[in-house]
Every structure is written in structure tokens, then in C-alpha cells.
Amino acid sequence: MGKDQLEVLNALDVAKTQWYHFTAIVIAGMGFFTDAYDLFCISLVTKLLGRIYYQKHGAAEPGSLPHNVSAAVNGVAFCGTLTGQLFFGWLGDKLGRKRVYGMVLMVMVICSVASGLSFGREPKAVISTLCFFRFWLGFGIGGDYPLSATIMSEYANKKTRGAFIAAVFAMQGFGILAGGTVAIIVSAAFKARFPAPSYEVDPAASIFPEADYVWRIILMFGAIPALMTYYWRAKMPETARYTALVAKNAKQAAADMSKVLQVEVEAEQENIEQGGNDFGLFSKEFLRRHGVHLLGTTSTWFLLDIAFYSQNLFQKDIFSAIGWIPKAKTMSALEEVFRIARAQTLIALCSTVPGYWFTVAFIDRIGRFSIQIMGFFFMTVFMFALAIPYQHWTLKENRVGFVVMYSLTFFFANFGPNATTFVVPAEIFPARLRSTCHGISAAWGKAGAMVGAFGFQYAEKGIGVRNSLIILGVVNLLGLLFTFLVPESKGKSLEDLSGEGEQENAAASGSRQQENATAAV
């Protein structure tokens, strides 16, 4: 950025990494920890729900959720998330990031607890209650996406901004890991307290009444980390970029950042008041400047989430198909929960979590564009490598190889587009539209997640796992092509990327000309 950048924004751009950066990462990151825990823990308990509420007397196989019920339980939170991303993204630009941030967290806490409760004991009542509260849980989670990304991008310096935003998103990996760990601990504890035979030995005894507490405890646990961070979110000051560029209060922005950075920052109110970068989201000027960028961020996130959420939500089905998890009838209800959680935790530990932190380490070195291209490329390669010789991978001696290949697709999703699609929309749009545009991009991602959650469920039954994996490979290839619409943002000021720097320079130049004219008179 040139010498005419507002001093408060320049101070943020060139600030050395300080304690407040790490504080912001933890505060925003714990929201994402909770988001991931809440969104992905449902896949750990759907088999248990089927056994408890949809068991048919005398059936050869344990009960399972009907296809429509399974799709609703897995996908309803994504519907809420999509709605929340659009609504809270817009609200974050209207009311400010800080004011909306605490509101989002309380919605998540209340609905996490409520999703473990039921109005009635009949299957219809239990599932209806679960779906209702998981929709509103998703609504709160949706708000966390644009607000956390925007807050972190506006607090960070330009040298390490990508790593800081990616570190917030990387907490999602720990959330997925925590979901599996909690499910393992809870199911193991109940197994030890209430031993049960496998379904084929004694169908009635393989599931006991106390098992109904297991899924409720797992779902309700998500409220704890969110509640722990509420106080610290309430204490965070509004971002200087919102206060200065949107609220037009340079004095307050300078005062807030003087405390945060522990240096004296000049206000420069006259430069703010003369800025004229006021085009709206639906204006021709926005379309000219950022239309292609918004198409790039929405399309890549949409395509990525079709593949990513299909893989995540239906790991248990794929592991069962290749025999990595035994047939359901050979296990008791809680043994099945334990084994599914153990398998998903192993995948998260070996590939998902490392992938996120590889992105954190390299995003400001090799750039967002290169990481996203590389990620989509290897996801495509490994998906086709799994799908084309699929029968080979189902043989018992090749199952370990299948899991390794499957894990690599997760690794390159996270050391790739799953992280970069979150980072870039928080950097390339103007401050007064940044949260809105990130919310729109994320909402398209969740639309992709719904296609994955609902579509893969039916595709797997209709065309089989092999053909479903081929389709996901093609989706990844399309994601690679649409990446070329997204600009590289590494090492650049947010104002340079959004075009707001031009208006700041013009405002400052106009201010100086006015001062010179006054002096001449």
C-alpha cells in the first residue's frame, strides 16, 4: 500500500506478530472447533439412532434410519448453516462484526443442548425435535463462517494474514477429532457399564434403554467449548477496518487499535469523510470489479463441499463396504458406535488435521492459488485411483491401501481448497461488503454440502460406491478449472485487493489539495 494509506490500517498491515494475534486465533478458532464438532458428530450416531428407533422385531439385520430420515438428519444442519451464512454475513456488514459475533455463539450453545432433548418418545417426535434444533444450530454455525474469517483478516498483518485465517479454520480439524474422541469415550464407558451381546446372538439384548443417553451426550457436548469462549468474544474490540471504512469513525478505530497494538495511532478523520467507494452489492460497479471474483469463490467452494462432505459424512458406509468395519449384525449397538468413531478419528488424526496445518505453514509462502490448484488436482487423482479399480480395493488384502488412498484425499482437501476457499473471500472484497460476500461464498459451499449429503446417499444406493466416487472425481476436476477465476491475495493489503486503496489515496490527495489551497489564500 502507498504512503497515503490510513495510518491505523497501515499499522495493522505492518504489525509484528503479537499476543493479540494468537488471542484472536483462539477466540475465533474455538467457534470453528465447535462448528466442526456439531456438524460432523451426527454421522457418528446415525447408526445408533436407527437401532434405537427403527428396529423391526425379528429382522435379520439391525434397524437403520430410512433413506429420507437419514438424509434429513445428516443434511438439515447444512440448510440452517446456509441460511445463517447469508443472514449473519449481511448483518455483520450492517451492525458490525463484534455485535453479531456473541449473538451467533449463544444460538450455537442453546441449540447444541436442545438437540439432545426430545419432545416425546416416539421415533417421529424424536427425529422431528432433533431436526428442528439442528437446523437452528446450523443457523448459528453459519454466522460463524463469515464473521470469524472477516474478523481475523481485518486484525491480521498482510505478511502472515493467510496463516492466521487458515489457523482459525484449522481448528475445524480438532473439532472433528474431538467428536470422534468424545464418541469413543462415551460409548466405551457405557459398554463397560452395560455389557451387551452382538445383534446376531441376541437382537433384543444388543441394544439397552440406557443407550439412548449416548447419542444425546455426544451431541450436547458441543455446547461446552462454545460457552467457554463467549466472555472473550464479548471483550474483543470492533475491527479497525469496519470502524474506519464502514462506520466512518477513524477516531474510534485509532483508539481501539492503539490499545491492541500498544502504540499511538493517528485518527485522520478528514481522509475517511472524503472517501467515495460506496457502490453496492448489486451495482454495475461491483459486477465490473468483483463479479468474476465472486463467481470464482462461490463455484470453487460449492464444488469442493460436494466432495468433502460426501466423504466425511459417509465414511462409515464406505468403511463398511470395504469391510474395514464389521457387518452391523456382528456387533452390539455401542460396539458399532465405538468402531465408527475409532475409524473416523484415525482418518482425522492421520490426514485431516495434518492437512489443515500444512496449509497454515505454507499458505503465505506458496500462495492461495497454488495450494488450491494442487489440492483439487490430487483430490481428482486419488478419487479416480480409488474408483476405477474399486473391486481391487474391496479385497481383504488391499483394504489398508484403500484407507491410505482415502486418507490422502482428505489430506489434500485440507492442504488445498477446503482451507483456501475459506481464506480468499475474507481478503478480496471491500470492507463494507466483506462479510456479506464471504457469507454468499460459504452459502454456496453449504449448498454443495447438501448436494453431497443428500445426493451421495441416494447415489450410493442407486449407482453404487464406485460410480459415486467417479462422479466426485469429476467434481474435483471442475473445481480445479474454476480456481482460475480466483485472484492471488498473498502479501497484499486488503485495501489494495478490494480497490479501496484507490479511494483512500484519492481522499488523501484531495485533502492535501484543499489544505494547499487554503494556505495559498
TrEMBL record:
It comes from the Eukaryota. Residues 24-491 form the Major facilitator superfamily (MFS) profile domain. It is a multi-pass membrane protein. GO terms for biological process: arbuscular mycorrhizal association; cellular response to nutrient levels; phosphate ion transport. Residues 506-521 have a biased composition (Polar residues). One of its GO terms (cellular component) is membrane. GO terms for molecular function: phosphate transmembrane transporter activity; symporter activity. NCBIfam families: 2A0109. This is Major facilitator superfamily (MFS) profile domain-containing protein. It comes from Malus domestica (Apple).
